[in-house]
Amino acid sequence: MTDQLTKSQELIARRKAAVPNGVGMFNYATAAKADGATIIDEDQRELIDFAGGIGVVNAGHCPPPVVKAIQEQAAKFLHVSFNVASYEPYIALCEKLNTLLPHGGPTKTLLVSTGAEAVENAIKIARQATKRQGVLCFTDAFHGRTMMAMTLTSKVGYKPDCGPFAPEVYRTQFPNFYRYSAGRSEADFVKAELNRLEELSHNTVAPENLAAIIIETVQGEGGFNVAPEAYLKGLRAFCDKHGILLIFDEIQSGFGRTGAWSAYEHFGVVPDISTWAKSLGSGMPIAAVMGKAEIMDKAGPSSIGGTYIGNPVSCAAALATLKYMEEIDINAKGRHVGSVIRKRFEKMKAKHKCIGDVRGLGAMMAIEFVKNGDPLATRCRHLHRADERLRQARPRGDQRRYREEHHPRVEPARDQR
Ligand SMILES: Cc1ncc(COP(=O)(O)O)c(C=O)c1O
Asked: Is residue 417 domain-resident?
């Protein structure tokens, strides 16, 4: 036994000393290199990357054509600001996205840097286009950590002591069929959920005050909950009836993850505005707000934008990523991976009572752990609460004891030790 720290442990110790605790650390992995589906850590161990940079590397780590495009653009120029001088990669990327994901007619795109920034701008555009202020969002939603995005985000664990939050934001229940159907058919469940919208119009916010409804058609952080198609069609009709803009947040579900460029393609419902980020740039910071041209053009001069919007190196990376995704047929891969995982998960569910549900679209596939087969007694909430208590536990001895009591130990297989 030696007390010498590994290189990974040394790095984590430096992180703890230099970086605030509030920056999430989901595990003790380190990264020195990454390629395809693997990460090489500081101690030269090869890790299979199941996180994919939180939904960012759908095309794998460092696809060679993307790295090449980054190098070539970096050798030309790194930044001029799109507000100061127009450059081709920004415009080419908007043109490509408008062709790939038309919003039911002429479509325009604004490029920014992060998912949260895309969400902020989508709301600003919707408010300017409708001259209304209200925004309706959903339980279990995740839309980011800036002030409006955090307000729209549902999980309270992400926003302790961060309020007051943005005004004129209303929340209703996400149509989570598995959790809330209580034995009803999907048709009856959807009817009741759409009725909830009508009730909300009387007792919470008048629809004529709503600028937008924002929804993830497949929730990411919320647990890969897929909205029923009939619900999304009903939501579209509700928006059309009341002049409300429908925003789909595709930041996590876009670019092949569900076996299509967008999750919404699966439902035959087109949004007025949509938000994109993550896998668009294979890791380079790039995000997009897309929408019907006449809506996007309603935003006043300089009311949307920023110094770094659509960085040229990120635009080049995104263009190369989309081309590469087309070449490898990322959507077919997403569907294939999804069908393999679903079969495995279904087998596990048949064997283990603690698995209540297998769900998802394409490779965005999840299992839900519950107690005694009860969809309302989700084990994930229990684990999340345990993690919260673990984070707050002091001193280190308490943390170790707590972890041992609440988290099952997973030992590496003998031949991998
Ligand atoms: C659906 C969704 N919207 C918005 C965001 C925020 O994106 P970012 O972390 O790039 O700000 C995320 C991030 O996980 C997300 O999953």
From this structure: no
Q: Is residue 374 part of a domain?
A: no
Question: Could you say which of 278, 308, 328 is where a domain stops?
Answer: 328
Question: Which of 121, 143, 158 is the best mutation target for the ligand 1 pocket, counting ligand atoms within 8 Å of the beta carbon and taking the most?
Answer: 143
Q: What angle do CA 322, 246, 191 make, to 5 degrees?
A: 120
CA of 144 to the centre of ligand 1 (A): 5
Residues 196 and 287 in one domain: yes
Task: Indicate whether 275 belongs to any domain.
Answer: yes
Answer whether 131's CB lies under 8 Å from 207's CB: no
From 129, 167, 122, 112, select the one nearest 143 (Cα to Cα).
122
- In sequence order, the 6+-apart residues with CB closer than 8 A to the CB of 93 are 109, 111, 286, 288, 310, 315, 318, 319
Q: What is the CATH number of the domain that holds 89?
A: 3.40.640.10
Could you report the per-residue pLDDT of 121-166, keeping only the tens digit for each?
A: 999 999 999 999 999 999 999 999 999 999 999 999 999 999 999 9
Q: d(Cα 19, Cα 347) in Å, to the nearest integer?
A: 42
**140, 87: one domain:** yes
pTM: 0.91
Structural domain total, the chain: 2
For residue 287, give the ligand 1 atom closest to its CA.
10
Domain shared by 27 and 69, yes or no: no
* 402 CA distance to ligand 1 middle (Å): 30
User: Which three-class secondary structure string do you get for 305-350?
Assistant: CCCCCCCHHHHHHHHHHHHHHHHHCHHHHHHHHHHHHHHHHHHHHH
Return the higher-pLDDT residue of 405 and 58. Answer: 58
Pocket test for ligand 1, best of 112, 119, 159, 278 (most atoms within 8 A of CB): 278
Take atom 16 of ligand 1 and give the residue whose Cα is closest. Answer: 252
Please name the residue whose Cα sits nearest to atom 8 of ligand 1. 115
Structural domain containing residue 128: 65-328
Atom of ligand 1 nearest to the CA of 144: 6
The domain boundary, picked from 328, 355, 381, lies at: 328
For residue range 224-256, what is the model confidence (pLDDT) as tens digits?
Answer: 999 999 999 999 999 999 999 999 999 999 999
The ligand 1 site (C-beta within 6 Å) comprises 54, 114-116, 119, 142-144, 216, 220-221, 249, 251-252, 277
